[in-house]
Amino acid sequence: NAGVTQTPKFQVLKTGQSMTLQCAQDMNHEYMSWYRQDPGMGLRLIHYSVGAGITDQGEVPNGYNVSRSTTEDFPLRLLSAAPSQTSVYFCASSYSSRYEAFFGQGTRLTVV
Amino acid sequence: AQSVTQPDIHITVSEGASLELRCNYSYGATPYLFWYVQSPGQGLQLLLKYFSGDTLVQGIKGFEAEFKRSQSSFNLRKPSVHWSDAAEYFCAVVDGNKLVFGAGTILRVKS
């Protein structure tokens, strides 16, 4: 099993550009989430989904969009990148928020 | 909203010494609590979890944690640290449909 796969691993964007971070899982998990990790701030929840067609905002949703058309995929879209979005992004999946979360390897994004 | 506090940003211990990482949570009922570990450049891996029952929980890699309701704490312990334990450790609590993480504690192991 591949688990949770994130692409790309590294990305550099210019301010104002848009892009999509991909996340796919092959464990048939209903619950998927996106976090950003910044030094000294731990992981902060951006958006999450409890199943296909259902998404909700986390702690820091501004500037990001998500959709969940299939159980397997949960892409994160940056609409107009800003330097404040420079961070490491992690996707995770689990049966629910109360079960072990499986994390991808992360995407390191730099916005210049 | 529920929250998790990890008071120590960095901790340095000697190899072979014991370790305790602190975690305090805010939650009225019995919380769902987790400890995760992140090695450099990697994603997070679950060490252990507490839902209910025995307040001393055993995890992988020789780690354990004790849930103390009276102190709102869920501290992580290991009797003898190995150099490979150097990593960042995160405590987390479930808040409805959300998993809320603490700021993390970076563990350094000196030989």
Question: Could you explain how this protein is built, in words?
Answer:
- The complex is a heterodimer of chains A (112) and B (111).
- With 112 residues, chain A is mostly beta strands.
- Chain A has strands at residues 4-7, 10-13, 19-25, 31-37, 43-51, 54-57, 64-66, 76-78, 87-94, 102-103, 107-111.
- The radius of gyration of chain A is 13 Å and the shape is globular.
- Chain B is 0% helix and 54% strand.
- Chain B contains no helices and 12 strands.
- Chain B is globular, with a radius of gyration of 13 Å.
- At the A-B interface, strand 4 and strand 5 of A face strand 6 and strand 11 of B.
Which structural traits does this protein have?
heterodimer, A: 112 residues, mainly beta, seven-stranded mixed beta sheet, B: 111 residues, six-stranded mixed beta sheet, four-stranded antiparallel beta sheet, 12 strands, 0% helix, globular
| N- to C-terminal distance of chain B | 41 Å
The helix tally of chain B amounts to 0
Overall form of chain B: globular
Q: Give helix and strand order of chain A, one letter per element, not per position.
A: EEEEEEEEEEE
Radius of gyration of chain B: 13 Å
Helix fraction of chain B by DSSP (H/I, runs of at least 4): under 10%
